[in-house]
User: What shape does this take?
Amino acid sequence: MAIIGSTQFLERIQFFNGERLFASDLQALEAFNREMRWLHNQSLHQAGVGSGLQVVGNAGDRQVTISPGYAIDSCGREIILTETQVLAIPPVADNGSGGPVYYDLTVSYPDDSELTPSETRDGICMPTGVVRLREAPIFCWVQLSDDPTNRQPIDSRLKARIKTALFIVLAQVEIFNCQLKQAVSTVQRRNARPPKQPHIACGIEQNPPWQSIALGQGEVALESALIGRLGTAMYQATVDTSSGGFQATPFYVARLVGPRQFTSTGDVEKTYVADALINIPQDSTLTTQGFTIQILPVMATVAGRAPDLKDLANAVSQWNVGWMGIES
Assistant: This one.
């Protein structure tokens, strides 16, 4: 029974009192639980090294040391090394042109045919059979091309296994005169745990649906060389951030995008500047799909004439909202 692949049904093993059990029944039960676990790994985790499997080797060494560890391949199968292993490097002198030879060290899950029996028992009126198999990962040296800008496996079959994450790259070595020319590099290793970093997305809300909310406190004169006014209304709009693809509510910042200098549309033409104080309420309107922005406009003229507050609506209508969300 194989769950991963083309299988289109599952069979759960059942037992009843008095049933005659065969080895195939118990093996099917073990296979069901194992392959369900593999399916879980394949579905919810990415292939790579989960922990350990560090590769150490210094310049001049003829072997590398691999520490115990755990990895997962693209089929969800667990690759486990339980004890430190010392592995000899390929015995090559050079690449045929007097230069070093590069290899990737990979690890993979063993096929059943590659497992070593660790315990056998005599059957009852039957031949001796294997009851335990020792699982040990398979390490493989994969020779790379000499192109320094694009080192790829020379063997196309091994290259395909690495690309499909059936072979997990642990390290890369540079060999010259049958020894390491420099210390082992682990930059190339593939990790099952992606690096944790903030998810950042940004955008611009074009023509936000501004709504005016009266404050009821009257006009407030600004004590400045300019003659200015705070508006008697606050404006509010909903900003759509669904394009950011956030999984959790991020921290939002916003700014107004648009002109700051305007010309009055009233009877007396005058130039005025306008800007606004910005607030993002930290309430239920703050979600993964968007947030509410509130602005309190302020305007001023430089000609000594008090600005007309009705011109604020003209200024607000020309402002878009630039936003950025940071999801940790």
